[in-house]
Every structure is written in structure tokens, then in C-alpha cells.
Write a structure and sequence with these properties.
Length: 403
């Protein structure tokens, strides 16, 4: 019996890889999508500064202009760069920045003399980043001018009660008022206080884009070819080889065991290659327990190939098998959280998709790669995948027909 199973498995492997397009699903597409969704082309691990660039030309070079620059730099969305006028205008003309702020000479003197101080802000047309930069500049100017406005109001009240003896006394009073107003503004009571827990919850874990992308695409591109087992059954029925095999001294169990062995063996090789690729290229930590990883991959492979055998008893042609394999594989992988984290789905969907084996497989691999789970932790998930395998295989055996 073992020799028959081996012969059937080898025959199916030859048939499966007789087409060069099989390599597309076996290795090429998985690697491409792992790199795309795993962040290999500029993912979450990048140190690039994504804040909006604001070019500033500071010709005033005063304490007040420096305070304005510090306020702008402290704003969340802006990254401030000071440049000479000619260089800044050239960069703005080349659209290297969405906005250019010009602080002219005499800016601080105009403010101190209670005169109108003009700042020039140039914005790229129809640019949302430029609008955000403008709002940030307006906020910074308002914050900077608030102490001066308070001091000027105090100066007016003081002059109404008793005029100053000379301009020096008036300027000194205004400067003292500005200093007091700055202190008062800085000590303004906080009306909204945001607090964070001092320690993270025990079940909180950092999201790893590379780990999620690699595990999710492994599940996707192993699941689809294993569903394609249904195409082998349709192929055998179309050419009558299935009927001839069963007429020979080869039982139904022997034949199905050969089918499963061949497809499952190829899936193990595929998963091993993708695990190595993830570890070497994507720097994915597959966990601290090789045994736990092996159990997850084996049980997922068994559930998937059993699903393919069951599907093969429903389809009529190879075309139907191919279309259904891709459609079901993609949709079940997507809903199972293999492409995007399951937390992004509505709560009702998160609950409903636990009927899918891909959801449990993704949950198990995520626990290994991002939560440090061990063999004991993933055994319940492995048991669920084994239950899927038993159910699918049982349905396939009951519905199995040679014609």
C-alpha cells in the first residue's frame, strides 16, 4: 500500500508542476506579496521623517523670530528648515516643500513698537499639506503674540490712569508686562489632561508589520494551491484515469491518501522555503519554539488539503476548480486577517470569521511571531485545525465518486 501511495503522490506532483505557471503560485507571488505587505519597500521600520516640510527664511535673526521658529518646530505636523532666501525660493519653485515662510528684517522692532508686523507665507496651490502648514503658522503666531497683546492692553490701561514720564519708562513698562504675560500664559491651568497607564496590559504586544505580512502571505499562497487539489480530482475524472485506478486493486482510501500525501508534501516544502525567506530577508522571529511552529504549519496544511479534497467532490471541471480555489482562497485569507489585521474589521465580522480555518491559522502564527507563544499556547488552535481536517476529509470521502 505504501508503494501505491508514494506512486500516486509522485504522479500528482509531476502533473501539478508540469505547468510553469505553478511556480508563480508556489514561490514567486508569495515572495512578492510578502515583501510588499511586510514593509520591505519602506515599511514601519523606516526612520524617514514624514512631517510636513516648512522652509523658513529668517532675515530678522532676533529673539522674537527665534521664538517663532521654536514654536513652529514644536508643533506636531511640521519639520522646519531655515534656508537663505535664494535657496529657499528655488526649493519652493521646485516643489520640494508645500510652504515657504519669510520673516523680514525689522519683524521684532515692529512688534515691540506695536506696529503691524508682516510675515509672508507662500503655499503650493491645491495642496493639503500647505493648508496644514498655514494653520500651524497661524497657531504659532497667535501663541507668540498673546503675551504682547496682554502687555499692550495693560499699557493702555496704565496710560489712561497716568501718562508715562518719557518713552524709556513706557518701553520698560511694556517689556515688563510682556515678561509677566509670558509667565502667566505658560502657567495657564490645563483643562484637558490625557493620561496613559504606567504599565502596558499583560496581553498588549507590539504590532510587527513584517511578521504579519509574512505569516499572512504564507497562509494565503499555501492555502490556494492546496484548494487546487480539487483540480487534480477533476482532471482524473475528465480523462477517466480515476475510474481505471479504482478498478485496479487500489482502494478509495489508498487513492485519497496518495492525493493528500503529494499535495501536503509539496505544501510542506513551500512553507519551509517561505519560513526561511521570512527569517533571512524579512528578519521575522518565528518564535521560541520550533515544535510549536511545526505543529501550526502541519495542522494548517492538513486542514487546507482536506478542504481541497472536499471541494474536488463538488466541482465538475478543472476550470471550476481553478476559479473556486483562487476565489475562495483569496476571500478566506482576506477575511481571516491574513492581509490586514483582523482588528480593522467591524466587531461582528471579527466574530463571524472564526468559522474559517484561515482565521485560526493566522491567529496561531501571530501568537508565535508577535506574542511569544509556545507549544502549549497554540495547541487549542492546532486542535481546531485538526477538527477542520477531519470534517473536510470525512465529507470528501463520503461524496467521493469516480465519475
Amino acid at each position: 500500500m505504501l508503494s501505491k501511495i508514494t506512486a500516486i503522490a509522485w504522479k500528482d506532483t509531476i502533473i501539478r508542476f508540469s505547468s510553469k505557471t505553478e511556480l508563480l503560485f508556489f514561490l514567486i507571488l508569495p515572495i512578492i506579496f510578502i515583501m510588499l505587505l511586510g514593509g520591505a519597500f519602506g515599511g514601519s521600520g523606516s526612520d524617514e521623517d514624514f512631517r510636513i516640510l516648512l522652509i523658513v527664511v529668517d532675515e530678522d535673526q532676533s529673539d522674537l523670530s527665534q521664538s517663532l521658529l521654536e514654536s513652529l518646530q514644536a508643533s506636531g505636523p511640521l519639520r522646519v528648515e531655515t534656508q537663505p532666501l535664494a535657496e529657499a525660493e528655488a526649493a519652493f519653485a521646485d516643489k520640494e516643500a508645500p510652504a515657504l515662510l519669510h520673516i523680514p528684517t525689522g519683524f521684532a522692532e515692529s512688534v515691540s513698537a506695536s506696529e503691524t508686523a508682516v510675515l509672508t507665507l507662500q503655499q503650493q496651490p491645491n495642496n493639503s499639506d500647505a493648508q496644514i502648514a498655514a494653520q500651524a503658522v497661524e497657531t504659532a503666531v497667535t501663541t507668540l503674540s498673546r503675551p504682547l497683546t496682554i502687555a499692550q492692553a495693560s499699557l493702555q490701561q496704565a496710560e489712561q490712569q497716568q501718562p508715562f514720564a518719557n518713552e524709556t519708562e513706557r518701553v520698560a513698562y511694556l517689556k515688563q508686562g510682556q515678561n509677566l504675560a509670558k509667565t502667566a500664559v505658560a502657567n495657564t491651568p490645563t483643562r484637558v489632561l490625557i493620561t496613559f497607564p504606567t504599565t502596558a496590559p499583560e496581553d498588549a504586544n507590539d504590532y510587527d508589520q513584517a511578521a504579519h505580512g509574512t505569516a499572512g502571505q504564507l497562509i494565503t499562497w499555501v492555502f490556494i494551491p492546496l484548494l487546487g487539489t480539487s483540480g487534480l480530482l477533476a482532471f482524473e475524472r475528465r480523462y477517466g484515469t480515476l475510474r481505471r485506478l479504482l478498478v485496479a486493486p487500489t482502494g478509495r482510501g489508498t487513492y485519497l491518501s496518495g492525493i493528500i500525501t503529494g499535495q501536503f508534501g509539496a505544501a510542506l516544502v513551500q512553507m519551509a522555503l517561505l519560513v526561511v525567506f521570512g527569517a533571512v530577508v524579512m528578519k521575522v522571529n518565528w518564535g521560541n519554539s520550533p515544535a510549536a511552529l511545526a505543529v501550526m504549519l502541519v495542522t494548517f496544511g492538513l486542514a487546507s488539503v482536506a478542504f481541497g479534497v472536499m471541494l474536488g467532490t463538488f466541482v465538475k471541471t478543472e476550470g471550476q476548480a481553478s476559479n473556486l480555489s483562487i476565489m475562495l482562497g483569496m476571500s478566506m485569507a482576506l477575511l481571516g486577517g491574513c492581509w490586514w489585521p483582523l482588528e480593522l474589521f467591524p466587531p461582528a465580522v471579527q466574530t463571524a470569521v472564526h468559522i474559517l480555518p484561515t482565521t485560526w491559522a493566522m491567529q496561531g502564527l501571530s501568537a508565535l511571531t508577535m506574542q511569544g507563544a509556545g507549544l502549549r499556547d497554540i495547541l487549542p488552535i492546532a486542535a481546531i485545525l485538526c477538527a477542520y481536517a477531519v470534517v473536510f476529509f470525512t465529507i470528501g470521502v463520503i461524496r467521493f465518486r469516480a465519475e
